[in-house]
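Q: Got a minute? One more chain.
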Amino acid sequence: MCFICKTTDTLKTIRLMIREQLETVLKEYIPELSVPLIASWIQEHRLHLHISNRRSTKLGDYRAPANGNTHRISVNHNLNPFDFLITLIHEFAHLTNWVKNKHHVAPHGNEWKEEYKRLIQPFLQLPIFPDDVKLALRKHFINPSASCSDLHLQRVLKTYDTRKDLSITTVERIPMGAYFKLRNDHVFKKGVLRRTRFECVDITNGKIYLVSAMAECKRIENK
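A: Always. Here it is, folded:
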C-alpha cells in the first residue's frame, strides 16, 4: 500500500490505496502505458506521493525518510502527462540514488545521472512519448540535469499543454523590460538572461531574483 496526497486550492485528501486504486489515480496524471511500472515503484518504496499545487520555482521534489516518515515525492498537478511522468522519474532517481548512496553524493552528480538514465529506459522502449518528446529526451540524457533547466525539452513539452487560459505565457516569451506577474502575485520587471534564468526585479522590494525562462506568468501591459 502507499499514500497519495492530492492538493487543490480548496481541498486536501489523503488516502491509503491498494494497487487498483493507485493505478486509477495515476491514470489522471501520466500516460496509461506508464502506470503499471510507476505503481510498482510506488508500492515497492512505500512512497508518499504528493500531488501539489502549481509552483513557479519547481516542478517536483524529493524528500528522504526522516523522523519516522517514508520517502516523499511531490509533483505539480498542472503538468501535462508527459511532463508529469518525466518529473516523477527524475524524482524517483533521487530516491533510488539516496537508497544506494544516502547523502554521500551530490544531488545531481554522476550517481544520480546514472540512476535517471537507468529508470527512464523502460519508458523509452514503450510507445509512450511522441517522437518530438522522445528526440528531446535523448538529447537531454546526453548529460541530464533538472528537466526544468533544459529549455529545449521544456519548450517541446509545453506544446502538449491543454491549458485554455490564453493570458498565461512564459517569461522567455515576453519582451526585455516588460512587467509580469507570477502565481504568487509578485510583479517583476524582466532583465537579462543568465543561462536558463532571467534576472528579474521584484518591484515591491527592489530585490533581484533569478526566474526560470519557462516559468508561467501573466504579462502586465501598463505598470
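A: The domain at 168-220 is CATH 2.30.30 (SH3 type barrels.).
Q: Perfect, thanks.
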